[in-house]
Design goal:
Helix content is 39%, strand content 12%. With 141 residues, it is α+β, with helices and mostly antiparallel strands. It has one domain (2-138). The strands form two sheets. It has a three-stranded antiparallel beta sheet. A two-stranded antiparallel sheet has the order 4-5. Strand 1 and strand 2 form a beta hairpin. Helix 1 (2-13) runs antiparallel to helix 4 (92-108) and helix 2 (45-60) packs antiparallel against helix 4. The two termini are 20 Å apart. The mean pLDDT is 87.
Length: 141
């Protein structure tokens, strides 16, 4: 899982497009559908959550771009970004795609299951990052 995320992050830094569909559990990089399948080495639930929280923090402090849209996650508005956030220059669209890819890979690898996070309800809220919410429909049944 970590190797796949590293390769996707490298592709994004090189300017390749990355699109994810949380509901369908698909990742498309530069027009090619990524089929991780059995190649994913599962990590622990705790490691998956740490990776998701880290990706969320990057997304939360990312710079809005002209590619605005409805993001399934909440980020800081541009006026609340710090000078360090602005200097980092991480584009929101790319940060969102990497966050979504992290969630998809964690569920596909089997290291993150909704039943392990929450026994009821339609979402899970991170106890440390209250704005980080994962919807039940994003998980594989």
């Amino acid at each position: 899982m970590i190797t796949t995320l590293t390769l996707l992050a490298k592709a994004v830094r090189q300017g390749r497009s990355l699109r994810c569909n949380l509901a369908e559990h698909t990742i498309t990089c530069h027009g090619t559908v990524i089929q991780p399948g059995t190649q994913l080495r599962p990590v622990t639930k705790e490691e998956s959550l740490r990776l998701i929280e880290k990706a969320y923090e990057t997304f939360r402090h990312s710079m809005p771009t002209s590619r605005t849209g409805d993001y399934p996650f909440l980020a800081l508005p541009e006026e609340e970004l710090s000078p360090d956030d602005i200097a980092a220059g991480v584009e929101r669209h790319s940060a969102e795609a990497l966050l979504e890819a992290t969630v998809i890979l964690a569920t596909l690898s089997g290291s993150l299951r909704y039943e392990d996070l929450s026994q009821n309800g339609w979402f899970w809220q991170c106890p440390r990052q209250k704005r980080l919410v994962l919807l039940r429909k994003w998980f594989i049944s």
